[in-house]
Amino acid sequence: MATKAQWIEGARPRTLPTAIAPVVAGSAMAAAMGGLALVRAFLALLVALSLVIGVNFANDYSDGIRGADGADRVGPLRLVGSGVANPQHVKAAAFGCFGAAGIAGLILVVLCGHWWLLTVGVACVAAAWYYTGGEHPYGYLGLGEIFVFVFFGLVAVTGTTYTQTDRVNTATWLTAVLIGALACAVLVSNNLRDIDGDRESGKRTLATRLGHTGTRVLYLALIVVALAGVVWVGALTTWWCLLALVMAVPLVAPVNAMLTRATGMALVPALRNTGIAELVCAVGLAVGVAIGA
């Protein structure tokens, strides 16, 4: 039986900024349009957190039963791959999280009145499960980054704003793109760390296709997109949004790791710091909008 600490580690708390940041950023854009609704923002946050934790458990289960998480895996503990938890218990935890996301999402839809968003919620859960689940997981086809960009960037940010303001403007779309780029960078750093093990297990992530050098270039390109996006959003809303550029501070170490070709466990801090940078960016945008108002 896995301990409480092992379950917490299995939930991969380092990835939680990818759930919090889009809701904070989307709410900031709602505030910039004069429509901030805190209760709806909180519900959106519950949806995002439940989905991220759910997809982490789902990945743990699916990769574990496929043998993709061997004993020599680099990185945080995997519950199924390490044998510390019953696979069915991990699967149940994943669907429990998806259920929690569904309940919070339903309440949010009732409050905002946009019932078509239920189809978006179903798509989010399906995408979370089939990332590494099912017979043909798209995460094994090098499409994981697209999933993260769309659902933890475009959908999460614009959805948060839309459920509060009933509209989405250009600044919101740009915010969604830059947050999506940072979320992708988190996954890219994770997959770069696991690249050798994934190749051996037959898991064809985008990193295994691009190779070490190509993956590092992709990471740096995503960071450039995020930084440029902040400047553009500032130009459309308030220049105080440039406070989000403080995210460059936690990005120094990850960028250095990419440039110095760090590998294995040396890339674990890169994942953590990239997630922190995404959260700092979102908070910077929110503070900037508040000051600008």
TrEMBL record:
InterPro entries the UniProt entry points to: MenA, UbiA_prenyltransferase, UbiA_sf, UBIAD1
Segments traversing the membrane: 37-58, 138-159, 171-192, 213-233, 239-259, 271-291
Primary localization: membrane
Pathway the protein takes part in: Quinol/quinone metabolism; menaquinone biosynthesis; menaquinol from 1,4-dihydroxy-2-naphthoate: step 1/2
Subcellular location: Cell membrane; Membrane
UniProt cross-references to Gene3D superfamilies, sorted A to Z: UbiA prenyltransferase
GO cellular component labels: plasma membrane
BP-aspect Gene Ontology terms: menaquinone biosynthetic process; vitamin K biosynthetic process
Family indicated by similarity: Belongs to the MenA family. Type 1 subfamily.
Protein name: 1,4-dihydroxy-2-naphthoate octaprenyltransferase
Organism: Cutibacterium granulosum DSM 20700
This protein's encoding gene: menA
